């Protein structure tokens, strides 16, 4: 497996992955994906490059300050920090969870975000996304507050200082 930059030819696979994880991320359609990619600092994908099975098994989207991205979560961090990278969404294929794909994506994204000094993101805390909260705590993400969502859920707002 390897991490690489998103290519427009990946759109169908990214949309399918996104729609398979709607318990953790919001829906995306082709126009929404195009808009998000256009606003993103980086979109990374993880490709399983086994000869018999060249498929995408994960992706992540990162936005920098000043993006026109219309999200209360992104705005929450923008109101508090000048320099940050906002990890908008991370999706790993269910069959690949706990196989290192998430760590591979985060290692890649955190290296790229070092110039900003900080990675920010949110994770559902009510109801809790227990696995994601534990994953982020183990990687050094620290809770900075909570934000109520229009879907009735609450997010823990997390940051990691990057050295």
Written description of the protein model:
The protein is an alpha+beta fold. It has a single domain, classed as Aminopeptidase, CATH 3.40.630.30. Helices cover 29% and strands 32% of the residues. It has five helices and seven strands. A seven-stranded mixed beta sheet has the order 1-2-3-4-5-7-6, sandwiched between helices. The longest helix has 13 residues, at 101-113. The radius of gyration is 15 Å and the shape is globular. The protein starts with a strand and ends with a strand.
Shape assignment? globular
Largest sheet: 7 strands, mixed
CATH architecture: 3-Layer(aba) Sandwich
- Assign a percent range to the helix content: 25-40%
Q: Walk across the major sheet and give the strand order.
A: 1-2-3-4-5-7-6
| Overall domain count | 1
How does the helix and strand content classify structurally? alpha+beta
In the CATH scheme, what's the topology name?
Answer: Aminopeptidase
Spell the H/E element sequence. Answer: EHHEEHEHEHEE
Task: Return Rg in Å.
Answer: 15 Å
Mean pLDDT across all residues, rounded?
91
Share of residues in strands: 25-35%
Amino- and carboxy-terminal Cα gap: 26 Å
Kindly provide the name of the CATH class: Alpha Beta
Q: How many helix segments?
A: 5
The CATH superfamily label reads: Gcn5-related N-acetyltransferase (GNAT)
- Unreliable spans: none
Give the beta-strand count: 7
